[in-house]
Amino acid sequence: MKTLNYTFLIVCFITSNLAFGQQPTDCTQAITVCGNSNVSLNVSGIGTQELLGSNTCSSQENNSIWLKVTTVNDGTLAFTLTPESNSITEDYDFFIFGPNVTCGNIGQAIRCSTTNPQAINQGNNLTGLSVNANDTAEGPGGAGNSFVSAINATAGDSYYIVIDRPIGNSPFSLEWTGTAQFAEPPANSAINQNEITLENCDLTLPYDDEITTFNLELNTPIIRGNQNNVTITYHESESDANINSDAISSPYTNISNPQTLYAKVTNTITECYTIVPFNLTIKNGPTITTPTDYQVCDDTTDGNDTNGQSLFILSSKNNEIGGSNASNYIFSYHSTFLNALNNTDVLSDNFYNTTPNQQTIYVRVENALDVGCISITPLNLVVNPIITTFDSILFQCDDDDLIDGFTIFNLDEAITDITDAFSSNNQVDFYENYTDATSQTNELNSLAYSNISNPQTVIAIVTNPITGCFETAELTLEVSTTSINNYIAPPVCDEVGSEDGLNAFDLSEFSTTILNGLPSNLDINYYDNYNDALLEQNPLPNNYNNTTPYNQIIYVRVEDDNACYGINEVALSILELPQLEADETLLYCLNNFPEALSITGGVIGNSNNYYYYNWNTGDTTINVEVNAIGTYVVTVTNILGCSKSRTITVEPSNIATINDIIVVDSTIDNNQVTVLTSGEGEYQFELIDFSGESTGFQSSNIFNNISPGFYTATVKDIKNDCGTIDQLFSVVGFPLYFTPNNDSQNDYWQVYGVSSQFQPNSVIQIFDRYGKLIKQFAPSSQGWDGTFNGLPMPTNDYWFTVKLQDGRIYKDHFTLKR
Question: Strand, coil or helix: what is 417?
Fold first, then answer.
């Protein structure tokens, strides 16, 4: 079977049931298939519903498209329909009417298939006519296998094929597989695509939007060639061409650049057609560059250098506008855009602007190799104002002790006098003569120029760096013979806390003295070195910190209306302060009052004969005796008059006062003693028993595990070693047993820590286990000897009560052993 590689693509159509909405979804708008080419199509909508009651496959139009085929030979009509998506849910049906029926009287379908491929587990979603099938109709749903038998067609027979998609949204393609062939579509007789590309210059307003009109029919004879029975229509889209909708005609205005149009070439007999795309192209004018402003300086060519008018050589802009292709272009200059468009009123190459200061003209550029296509660009003609300059005089001081009229000038000092107030950004260059200035050679060093005569005139060229306009001025250099005296500034004392010989000076305070006796209205400035003063650069601020410790020379320059009156030295001196010992804190024992403590002014190094002392006590000696707590400040002044202060703080210390000794006792060893003190000192504590054994000094005032007995508590000051204080005390206790057997060992039972000296009025009572009073005695007695009414008491536990003199009462028991 013959196969052509021609593809028809129909985009989705939105249709309705109205007559004017009919598309290939209706019989009357059926697409004629020619040349046995594979067909790729899409469906959308139904147009007019034409299948109801016309088929045995129980279906109607859902989303349909109508095709018409006419065979030119006897053969089988067969095809395979393949959805673009291979999803089994994409379901296509088809219906075939014929042969040789007419729209409106199509009769019953001779072939139809509405089988659902998913319902029959088909494995694919293909459908069509097959020479291997036997049935002529199948479906709906799970009935059939999606293919029905091919049609045995006779030459000249025509058939309508309706493709419908009830489920899915995929486009489809048809592959013709039978032996029947269709009429060939007409051919495109154009030799190549360039032959039918239409090109125009943009010759309609606004001329630069790449939109203009075209004569489409120029392509008609080229596409038709020698073919007969052919009509050609033109369309904006391929879809319009396929369905023969919305044909366009000349003159046609393009809507984009480039733009593709479609020519539909139709055989009036077979209705087969070919769609031929071609391009509309707007030919651009010459590629040009928008020129920079054409700037000149106002001059006296016309006798007036302030009227904003001058002469312009217009052709000097050709190369900038046309670039490397300028030689292929034709340039003309015009006063208006319309004149440039129409090529009228061409301006003279030597053009004198008619609008002062700035005028816009238009440049027409035409390609000499492609006459008719032009480009137009504006060109601004700018007349820049002249620079106003003033001749000036610059005075300078002589730069050495010899008054010879030669010195160094900073020429830049005269710039503000040479140029006007509106030209502060102008560039100023200096030359010794007009010859050098004209050739701009041998430019002078403006920051340090040595004059060669007195007076001397140098030439200044003032240039506006933006416009390039320049003017000259004369600067006369004169060396002043006036002078001022050196000045020694009053010495100042170094700053306390920053004794480095570097101080802050208010230089303005010197000016009155320096200018005393000189003419009025003089200006004065200070500089770090002579060269800066001479060239008037890097002036010092009035609030100045010297940079050389203790002694430094700076320079003062006095001017009379920018003329140097004189330069001389200013001597700065910083005096050293007394060197004193650091502030200190001393301790005084209050218990030593009225003994005195000696404090001193603390001068380091130099003889005391060079210093004066002033204490806040009123004393004026280097040392002062004090016996009171307080802050003592001495101000020490050296013979230069510089003072510095030193502070001595006297803080108290003292011997301790023992306020109380608290004893938690009545046991043998686990007794606690707390020594309570007061005082301004810092204290340590010690206990010494009657045998002389000491606990040693400790920071804590609490002593644990103290045995009963008599003790001395000692407290000493360690803050300033102000002395110690002692106090006797006792720890009350008792023995747990005694053995009254006259062996001189434990023969008596007595309470420890009480005696005729400690708690002498205490009462001690002993009871047997039944509470009977056995013995009562005082601390001054030997104690109990273990008898009652002269008879020895047996071994046993006995109870006791101790009523101390201070009111405390202790009760416990002990053992008598025999």
Answer: helix
Residue 516 CB partners (closer than 8 Å, separation 6+): none
DSSP 459-501: EEEEE-TTT--EEEEEEEEEEE------EEPPPEEPBTTB-SS
What DSSP string describes 224-266? HTT-SSEEEEEESSHHHHHTT-S-B-SSEE-SSSSEEEEEEEE
Is 747 within 8 Å of 782 (Cβ atoms)?
Answer: no
Question: How far, in Å, CA of 22 to CA of 13, rounded?
Answer: 10
The verdict on residue 1 lying in a domain is: no
Q: Is 322 exposed, middle or buried (CB count within 10 Å of its CB: 0-12, 13-18, 19+)?
A: buried
- Note whether 319 and 331 are within 8 A (CB): no
Give the CA dihedral 234, 239, 243, 246, nearest 10 degrees. Answer: -50
Report yes or no: 461 and 472 within 8 Å, Cβ to Cβ. yes
DSSP state of 609: G
Regarding pTM above 0.70, the answer is: no
* CA separation for the pair 146, 140 (Å, rounded): 10
Tokens of 91: 């379901």
Residues 6+ apart with CB under 8 A from 554: 526, 527, 528, 529, 540, 544, 546, 569, 570, 572
Q: Are strands 449-450 and 487-488 parallel, antiparallel or unpaired?
A: unpaired
Is residue 618 in some structural domain? Answer: yes
SS3 509: helix
Shared domain check, 759 and 715: no
Task: Name residues whose C-beta falls within 8 Å of residue 217's C-beta, 6 or more positions apart in sequence.
Answer: 249, 250
Residues facing residue 619 across a β-bridge: none
Same domain, 56 and 146: yes
Question: Measured in whole angstroms, how far is the alpha carbon of residue 697 from the centre of its chain?
Answer: 69
Rounded distance between C-alpha atoms, residue 686 and residue 449, angstroms: 92
Exposure string of 254-290, with b = 16+ CB inside 10 Å and e = fewer, is beebebebbbbbbbeebbbbbbbebbbbbebbbebee
Does residue 721 share a domain with residue 752? no
Give yes or no for a contact between 409 and 393, defined as CB atoms under 8 angstroms apart: no
Same domain? For 24 and 140 the reply is yes
Q: pLDDT tens-digit profile of 37-90?
A: 666 778 888 889 999 999 999 999 999 999 999 999 999 999 999 999 999 999
Which residue type sits at 646? R
CB 69 within 8 A of CB 33: yes
Question: Which residues span the domain enclosing 721?
Answer: 657-731
Centroid of chain to Cα 419: 43
Q: Is the domain of 638 the same as that of 666?
A: no
CA triplet 470, 473, 477: central angle to 5 degrees?
Answer: 140
Q: How far is it, in rounded angstroms, from Cα 344 to Cα 367?
A: 17
Amino acid occupying residue 42: N
Q: Give a yes or no: residue 51 inside a domain.
A: yes
Residue 305 is assigned to a structural domain of this protein: yes
Contact in structure between 47 and 65 (CB atoms under 8 Å): no
The C-alpha atoms of residue 4 and residue 273 are separated, in whole angstroms, by 13
Q: What is the mean pLDDT of the chain?
A: 88
Task: Tell whether the model's pLDDT for residue 668 goes beyond 70.
Answer: no
Looking at 176, 209, 238, which one is the last position of a domain?
176
Using a 10 angstrom Cβ sphere, with 0-12 exposed, 13-18 middle and 19 or more buried, the burial of residue 579 is middle
Render pLDDT for 283-331 as a digit per residue (tens, 0 to 9): 878 888 999 999 999 988 888 888 999 999 999 999 999 999 899 999 9
Q: Which residue has the tokens 């000038």?
A: 409
**Separation between Cα atoms, residue 129 and residue 112, nearest integer Å:** 9
Backbone angle region of 425, left / alpha / beta, with phi > 0 → left and psi within -120 to 50 → alpha = alpha
HSE-CB at 434 with a 13 A cutoff on CA atoms is: 4
